[in-house]
Specification:
The protein is mostly helical. Helices cover 73% and strands 3% of the residues.
Length: 264
């Protein structure tokens, strides 16, 4: 499963590398294409980071946190492709900039209280924020007035995944991000004679992590292909390839999981 996980990460970056001027790609706004390939690239980069972390069977507590981020990026990619409208893309972009605008206002307020004197770090931060806003294609007013995107549970529902996907990918993944009791007990504590003590650095990355995240990313890649391809036949051929990889991973997981799915 380790090698398949790595393979899926490489497939994600392959499709992210198809440029907008390719004759195979629809004429979609540049900023929309950028968002989609950035999400694909994020999935790929984080998956390959997990490969580097887990190749000796360790860092399970860390790969779980990263897998949660991959899951969210894949779901957002699928959601944007399923919606496909400018408003959804604008809301996605604006949501990440609202805090930047709030931060910008605070910096400008501090400068004003100083009588207009600006320190070097403030200048750099304002330039950086200004650049993010300029590249977004949105005005500050549009960003402020933009509606929030749906929460992850609603996105999963919108793209047709079931409630189990939300529980496994988001809720359970959040244990590891936020350090709940479940995560602490599973990853960071050992018990001996009723006494808890810090667990040693020996947490493996589980086979179901490699499987589940690979499948979610493959679904997102298939959604991306269907959204951006000009020719329906091209999209069909590439989607069949992605589906065959997904099927192979699921079959292999059934072999590895053994009796885990047997009735007891």
């Amino acid at each position: 499963m380790f090698e398949w996980y790595k393979y899926v990460g490489l497939i994600a970056i392959f499709f992210a590398s198809i440029e907008l001027d390719s004759p195979a790609i629809k004429d979609i706004p540049k900023i929309h294409h950028s968002v989609l390939i950035d999400l694909l690239n994020r999935c790929s980069r984080l998956m390959l980071s997990n490969i580097a972390l887990s190749h000796e069977g360790l860092f399970g507590e860390t790969t779980s946190i990263i897998d949660r981020s991959i899951f969210e990026s894949a779901i957002k990619l699928s959601w944007l492709c399923s919606k496909g409208d400018a408003d959804s893309f604008d809301r996605f972009i604006a949501e990440g900039l609202k805090t930047e605008i709030e931060f910008k206002a605070k910096i400008e307020s501090n400068i004003e209280q100083r009588g207009g004197d600006q320190i070097a770090i403030e200048k750099r931060m304002l330039n950086s924020i200004g650049n993010y806003i300029a590249k977004s294609g949105l005005t500050e007013e549009e960003i402020r007035d933009s509606k929030k995107t749906p929460n992850l549970a609603q996105m999963i529902k919108d793209i047709g995944h079931d409630r189990l996907a939300y529980i496994v990918g988001q809720k359970i993944g959040s244990h590891h991000v936020h350090g709940t009791w479940v995560s602490l007990r599973f990853h960071y504590l050992d018990e001996e004679d009723g006494i808890f003590h810090p667990r040693d650095h020996n947490v493996p990355t589980l086979v179901n992590q490699y499987t589940y995240i690979s499948l979610v990313v493959l679904y997102a890649i298939a959604d991306y292909i269907q959204f951006v391809c000009v020719e329906e036949e091209d999209a069909k051929v590439m989607t069949l390839l992605i589906e065959s990889i997904s099927e192979e991973i699921q079959n292999l997981f059934q072999e590895v999981a053994g009796s885990d799915n047997d009735v007891v």
